[in-house]
Amino acid sequence: MKKLKHEAELVKEAIRIGGVYMEKRGAGQFEATDSASNKITAIYRLLVLDKLIQPLAKGEESEPNMKHKLALWISRQLPKGHPLLEE
Q1: What is the pLDDT of residues 2-19, one digit of tens each?
Q2: Residue 87: what pLDDT?
Q3: pLDDT at 81 over 90
Q4: Would you list the DSSP string of 22-53?
């Protein structure tokens, strides 16, 4: 698993966009007290359920791997030329 250049920022953006997606889909919403770990897990599982990302292999569902998957997902959603996609 090769780390992306702006992976931490991409994960933050994925949490933000994923939260909006979750609300619009009617799957719930995050509270201010929810941890980043819970948000990452919830968004990852929702995206897998909706078949927007491929699930990790059994035994590979760790927080760093889920973060990486979310970073990859959001990097494909951002428009070309976005500052987080620059090398």
Answers
A1: 677 788 898 999 999 999
A2: 65
A3: no
A4: HHHHTS----TT--HHHHHHHHHHHHHHTTSS
Query: Tokens 């620059």 correspond to what residue?
Result: 86
Let me know: does 42 contact 14? Beta carbons within 8 Å.
no
Q: State the pTM of this model.
A: 0.87
In the chain the domains, ranked by start, together with CATH numbers, are 7-76 (1.20.120.1930)
CA-based torsion, 67, 69, 72, 75: positive or negative: negative
The contacts of residue 1 (CB under 8 Å, 6+ apart) are 65, 68
pLDDT at residue 55, as a whole number: 92
Residue partners of 29: CB distance under 8 A and separation at least 6 = 19, 22, 23
Whole-number CA gyration radius for the chain? 13
